[in-house]
Design a protein that fits this description.
Length: about 110
């Protein structure tokens, strides 16, 4: 009984993690793209930046799904964790993207301040 409860909780957790990723991809990133398009005049840069953010959201959600599925301790499911180091590398790269965006905001702010 306890094992089935663990699996049910894990499955619902995965569903809500996927739902959160879906909200980010469909409700948060499109308005962010519009905001960036109004500030930046280069549409290619905005599209590329949003594409990077989409990949980062997908990696974060996939990493969370793997983490949630590994909780029950099933050996077969735990084999999925082999891709976790690759996801960690991409996820760590996201921190540097955040620094890049911060620098971009500072440059745009200084440009508009004059």
């Amino acid at each position: 009984m306890a094992e089935s409860t663990v699996w049910i909780v894990a499955i619902f957790s995965v569903i809500f993690a996927l739902f959160g990723g879906h909200i980010l991809l469909t409700k948060v990133l499109p308005p962010l793209k519009k905001i960036l398009s109004s500030v930046l005049k280069d549409e290619n840069s905005v599209g590329s930046l949003v594409s990077i953010l989409i990949v980062l959201v997908a990696v974060i959600v996939l990493g969370k799904v793997l983490e949630l599925l590994a909780v029950p301790g099933n050996a077969t499911v735990n084999m999925l964790l082999v891709i976790q180091p690759g996801l960690d590398v991409i996820n760590d790269f996201g921190m540097y993207i955040g620094y890049l965006i911060l620098g971009l905001v500072i440059v745009i702010g200084l440009k508009n301040w004059k």
